[in-house]
Design goal:
Elements (H helix, E strand, L loop, with lengths): L3 H22 L2 H11 L4 H4 L1 H17 L3 H4 L1 H22 L2 H29 L3 H29 L11 H17 L14 H11 L3 H30 L5 H7 L1 H17 L5 H25 L14 H4 L3 H5 L2 H11 L6 H29 L2 H4 L4 H28 L1
Helix pairs in contact: 1-7, 1-8, 1-9, 2-11, 4-7, 4-18, 6-7, 6-9, 7-18, 8-12, 8-13, 8-17, 10-18, 11-12, 11-17, 11-18, 11-20, 14-17, 14-20
Length: about 425
């Protein structure tokens, strides 16, 4: 067991790593907007950046999830941070749509190493389900605040007079990645001695065997559906703000930070609520409110009177309200992850984390591609309505997961 004095340093290291990757990963929506304006690609072509980000996450997670305990979680995170440091510099010097594709392929690959490691280390740092829920929610909350910062960092480097000025942000991002690398390098912690299988073939077999569990199947479907909703909205919100609400480019990007901040606040609050209330009621209430917001607020935002906007005070109030949907979808991902991970033995956390990341990546890619397609063919004002379909399916999944987790605990009790 990791000593209490060391745990605080390890947690801080996890927070910093997740914070850095939050900025890098979720700048994809900003780069999609810039690619349309600077590199001249259309909405559907620009949405392929999400593919280049998410598919490496899925592939690397599948290949490496079971193998990471052998490499070491710390070493895996160091490799990821080193890779993105170099990738940020390559984006600056490359300055093309293909450079952006390569950047997000590197960021996605590195994040797969980081996320599997972080999710596995959480299991080493906590002793019960409540503690696991709380730490998972707080780490995911910090991730959201990193996303919010991205929406201010990029406009700070943007210039209407110089189309290449925004690339200077990658010097800052490479420096942050390097600092995170150094902090982690000098952080010492024990990683435990649990290894998923006897060899690589057995490692893969255990990951695939997890897929035969009904609980795991319903969970990965839930993760897939949630990320489809979250990434679909988050990736295209800057474009929605500019093309539908007709905000200036920098303002459109900064306004998208409201979604990220609300996600961060929602996840931190969820970490506190999960210690007092059962997770299924938290998630069901949050999902119903989120659906009501989409149904009631989105049409008002779309039909609001468009006028010349020079400052935030000129933006209609309703433009600030729709991104608050993040406050209510925020608890879903960390609480679902925690429910399933805390129900499994710690030696299966690495392969299970791999499955989480694989299906999350696929959901994120499809969500972004779908919204990109809808933006092009039905218009940005109508595209977000389609998120109500996966939201409804998620409500059903919550009750099924609750039934299956209760059944699993009863079976464990009868065996004991």
């Amino acid at each position: 067991m990791i000593q209490q004095a060391v745990r605080a340093k390890v947690r801080l290291s996890l927070y910093i790593n997740y914070f850095v990757f939050a900025i890098l990963l979720n700048s994809v929506g900003i780069v999609i907007l810039k690619s349309q304006k600077v590199y001249g690609v259309d909405e559907l072509a620009a949405s392929t950046l999400e593919l280049f980000k998410d598919m490496p996450i899925a592939i690397v997670s599948f290949i490496m999830a079971s193998f990471l305990p052998r490499i070491g979680y710390k070493n895996s995170m160091l490799i990821g941070l080193g890779l993105v440091t170099v990738a940020c510099l390559s984006m600056y010097f490359g300055n093309s749509f293909w450079s952006a594709k390569i950047l997000f392929a590197c960021v996605g690959s590195a994040f797969a190493l980081i996320k599997v490691s972080v999710y596995s280390v959480i299991g080493l740092l906590t002793d019960d389900e409540a503690g696991h829920n709380s730490l998972m929610s707080s780490i995911e909350g910090v991730f959201m605040f990193g996303i919010a910062l991205a929406y201010f960092i990029f406009p700070a480097f943007n210039s209407a007079d110089d189309p290449n000025a925004w690339l200077n942000v990658y010097w800052l991002l490479s420096a942050l990645s390097l600092l995170s690398f150094l902090f982690l390098f000098f952080s010492k912690f024990e990683e435990g001695e649990l290894i998923p299988g006897a060899n690589l073939a057995d490692d893969f077999r255990q990951m695939l065997l997890l897929m035969l569990k009904l609980l795991v199947l319903v969970f990965v479907l839930s993760a897939f559906l949630f990320v489809m909703v979250e990434q679909g909205i988050m990736t295209w919100l800057p474009t929605f703000n500019e093309k539908v609400l007709q905000l200036p480019e920098n303002m459109a990007i900064m306004m998208a930070s409201i979604l990220a901040v609300s996600l961060g606040i929602g996840r931190i609050i969820a970490g506190w609520l999960s210690q007092k209330f059962h997770w299924v009621w938290i998630l069901c209430i949050c999902m119903v409110v989120a659906m009501i917001l989409v149904i009631t607020v989105l049409p008002k935002a779309v039909s609001s009177e468009i006028r010349v906007i020079h400052s935030f005070s000129d933006i209609p109030l309703i433009g600030f309200v729709f991104p608050l949907v993040g406050l209510f979808i925020a608890p879903i991902y960390p609480l679902l992850n925690s429910v399933v991970l805390s129900a499994l033995p710690k030696n299966l956390h690495s392969p299970m984390s791999g499955l989480i990341i694989i299906f999350s990546a696929i959901g994120g890619t499809l969500g972004s591609r779908l919204i990109g397609y809808l933006f092009k063919h039905v218009g940005g004002g109508n595209a977000f309505y389609y998120t109500l379909i996966p939201m409804s399916a998620l409500l059903i999944c919550f009750f099924i997961l609750n039934y299956l987790t209760k059944k699993s605990k009863l079976n464990e009790g009868s065996v004991a």
